Amino acid sequence: MTEKTYTIDELCQLDEYPGIAYEQKYHFSRFTGKVIKHRDYHRDYTILGYILLFFSFSIGGWIWEVGIHVIEDGVFINRGTMHGPWLPIYGCGGVSAILVFKKHVDKQVAVFVGSVVMCGIAEYITSVVIEKMQGLKYWDYNGYFLNINGRICFEGMVVFGFACILVIYLLSPFLDNIFQRVSKKLLTVVAIILCVGFAIDLVYSVKVPNQGKGITDYSASIVRQIDIDK
Questions:
Q1: Whose CA is closest to 118, among 132, 103, 99?
Q2: Domain coordinates of the chain in residue numbers?
Q3: Residue 74 pLDDT grade (very low, low, confident, very high; cuts 50, 70, 90)
Q4: CA–CA separation, 93 and 129 (whole Å)
């Protein structure tokens, strides 16, 4: 077996060289002098892939929210709007970002700005819907810089904008690569179990919302904080 060393000019003539086509999966590293397989964020995801990404982001968002309270307050609080270990707003936001900005992934600044706006609108609408349907407030940004009715704030929107960038360009391709190495039958079974569990939790949570200390008692928390400050 013979090996050939390609110059950069020669690689430019190959279909695999980046920039020639979106479906290419390799790039030439000037640092190592090798052709390296990379995570292509132009890829198309399957329906099964989207389902698994939805749950990955939902569960990841739940871990993020719970982790913040564990670190800051030293207590475990199920911060989900449902009873299970997932926050669907993160899953919907992540999958929506992939779908909405699929044709514009090479315009990173535009994708970031669009993500900030999209996440702000989604969070505001979600807050209104939950409050109207269940009479509960799961978050309150009153006092935060540039907040709108306590439902969204500038800081949160920017953070979610960066989160979408992370999802589109790094996390989704990375997770999809992992999914492709696992048996499709196994992934299908896992997806079905997650969907059934999510559906049951959704129906139950509509009737019996997750609420209580550290979840929907923002007014009480504010009062206690004021008393402590005095």
A1: 99
A2: 8-37, 47-216
A3: confident
A4: 16
> Residue 61 belongs to what H/E stretch?
helix 47-73
Q: End-to-end distance of the chain based on CA atoms, in angstroms?
A: 79
Q: Which two tokens stand for residue 108?
A: 């990173």
- Assess contact for 78 and 66: CB atoms under 8 A: yes
Q: Is the pTM of this model over 0.90?
A: no
- What b/e sequence results for 130-163 when a residue is b if at least 16 CB atoms lie within 10 Å of its CB, and e otherwise? beeebeebbbbbeeeeebeeebbbeebbeebbeb
For residue 43, what is the DSSP state? P
Give pLDDT tens digits for 177-205.
Answer: 899 999 999 999 999 999 999 999 999 99
The Cα–Cα gap between 170 and 108 comes to: 13
Residue 50 has pLDDT above 90, yes or no: yes
